[in-house]
DNA sequence: GTTTGTGCAAACCATTTGCACGGAT
DNA sequence: ATCCGTGCAAATGGTTTGCACAAAC
C-alpha cells in the first residue's frame, strides 16, 4: 500500500480508494490511464469501488496537482502522474500509442511565442503546456 | 451562397446543409466551431436542419480534407477550415480563447523528434501535428 | 459524533445510429 | 425508380450528481 502522507499533504483524507488509485499510477506500466482503465483494474483486483468514485478521485488528484489530465484524440480523458518535469507527447493517430519526450529548445520557442502574444505563463499551473504530436508509429496496436 | 465545386471535388453532393455549413466556416469570425455552435447559428438563421446532420456533415468534411478536428480542453470537438498550412494552437485554460501560430523551428524540431523515434510522418494526413499550448491569456472571456 | 467520502442509480451532455421520408439524377 | 441525404427520436458512451449509508478523524 501507499504512503498516506502524500495525500494528507494535498489536503485529502487518506481513504482506501484514494490510496489504491494513487498506488496504481505509481506501479502501472502504462503511464496514461483513463477512469475506465482504473475502474476495470480495481474491479479485477477484487476491490469494491464505484466508477463515480474513480472519477471523483481523479478530479481531486488533478486539482491537488498529483495528476495531469489529457484529452489526446479519443473522447475519453486520460491521466498521468504529475512529476513536475514538463514533457510533450507523440500520439499515433492510428493505434493511439503515446510516447513522451522533452525538448528544451521546443519549450523555449513555445514560451517565446506565448509571451510575444501577451499570454501569461504560470509556473504553478499543471497546464502550461500539453503539446502532442499526432502521427503514425511503428507499433502494432 | 457558396460555390458547389469545392464539394463536388471532394466527392460530395452539393446539398443545402453542406453548402451552408461550408459557407459558415468561410465567413464566420470564429475559426473554431463546434457542432453545437453551427447548429445554433443555423437554427437562428431560420434554417431547418437537424443536429445529427451537422455531425454527419462535419465528419464527412473532415474525411474529405476540408476541415480539421481538434479536441483542446473541453469535452466537445471543434472544427476549422483546412487551409493546408500547418499551424499550432495556444489555448487559454481559463477562458478557452484560442490563438494560432506558425513556427518553422518548432516544426522542424518536432519532426526530428518523431523521426528519431521511428514515427512515420505522412504528409497527406491532416493529423500530422496538432500541438497546442495551454496557458492563461490576457483576454477576458 | 461529526464530517467527509463512498456506492449505486439516475441524470447529463456530446455524439452516433436506425429508420422512414424527401429530393436529386 | 433508385440512390443518397435528411430530420427526428432513440441509443450510446463518457462523465456528473443526488442521496442514503459507511468510513475516517
UniProtKB/TrEMBL annotation, chains A, B:
Name the InterPro entries on file.
FUR, Fur_C, WH-like_DNA-bd_sf, WH_DNA-bd_sf
Entry keywords, A to Z: Cytoplasm, DNA-binding, Iron, Metal-binding, Repressor, Transcription, Transcription regulation, Zinc
**Subcellular compartments:** Cytoplasm
Tell me the Gene3D superfamilies matching this sequence: 3.30.1490.190, Winged helix-like DNA-binding domain superfamily/Winged helix DNA-binding domain (1.10.10.10)
Q: How does it assemble?
A: Homodimer.
Protein family (similarity comment)? Belongs to the Fur family.
- This protein's name: Ferric uptake regulation protein
Q: Which organism is it from?
A: Methylophilus aquaticus
> Lineage of this protein's species?
Bacteria, Pseudomonadati, Pseudomonadota, Betaproteobacteria, Nitrosomonadales
- What gene name is given for the protein in this entry? fur
